[in-house]
Amino acid sequence: MKSNATRIIGIDPGTRFTGLGIIDRYGNKLKHVHSETIKTVNEKNLETKLTCIFDHLSEVIKEYKPNTASIERVFHSVNPRSSLLLGHARGVALLTLSKFGLEVNEYAPNEIKAAVTGVGRADKDQVASMVKVLLNLNRNEKLGEDESDALAIAICHANTHLYDLVDKK
């Protein structure tokens, strides 16, 4: 990481799939550092899924040492059970980030889409395409949906708090 860069981790939480995206921001440039999806879909129970998220996220934070974090704000789902499960995964992610002393910023889905595409109601494909453009990734490179969303959350934070991130250096 360049000495004047801010490293941002973005998290798209879920109990089946949790997206992680790490970018560096230096000046007005963004650079892709790491992204992946934590897959817990085959785990037998909720406790095991949440432990897997905590353990894997902890390892990623130790390895990449982000300076700040961003996460998607809870949105209200039609299905209350889905919202509750999402809340569990989100809580574990927030706990993990807090354990490592990271400041966490939350963004609504429409804020994230607007920061990345300019349109708050953009679809997943538009967001994924713009993530590749903004991070100068090969357009043919396949990013998982959750991974792409996590990178979009990190980009949203980088673009929303540009001056805050520069001032904190």
Quick check: average pLDDT?
91
Q: Please tell me how large the radius of gyration is.
A: 15 Å
Q: Strands of the largest sheet, in order across it? A: 3-2-1-4-5
Q: Please name the CATH topology.
A: Nucleotidyltransferase, domain 5
Q: What's the CATH H-level superfamily name?
A: Ribonuclease H-like superfamily/Ribonuclease H
Structural class of the helix and strand makeup? alpha/beta
- Binned, the helix content reads 40-55%
Tell me the overall shape: globular
Percent range for β-strand residues: 15-25%
CATH class: Alpha Beta
Distance between the termini: 14 Å
Biggest beta sheet summary:
5 strands, mixed
| Annotated CATH architecture | 2-Layer Sandwich
Number of DSSP-assigned strands: 5
**Count of helical regions:** 6
Order of helices and strands: EEEHEHEHHHH
Number of domains: 1
Q: Could you name the ranges where pLDDT drops below 50 across 5 or more consecutive residues? A: none
Walkthrough of the structure:
With 169 residues, the chain is α/β, with parallel strands linked by helices. It has a single domain, classed as Nucleotidyltransferase, domain 5 (2-Layer Sandwich). It has a five-stranded mixed beta sheet with strand order 3-2-1-4-5. A hairpin with a 2-residue loop joins strand 2 and strand 3. Helix 1 runs parallel beside helix 2, helix 3 packs across helix 5 and helix 4 packs across helix 5. The radius of gyration is 15 Å and the shape is globular. 40% of the residues are buried. The model has no long low-confidence stretch (mean pLDDT 91).
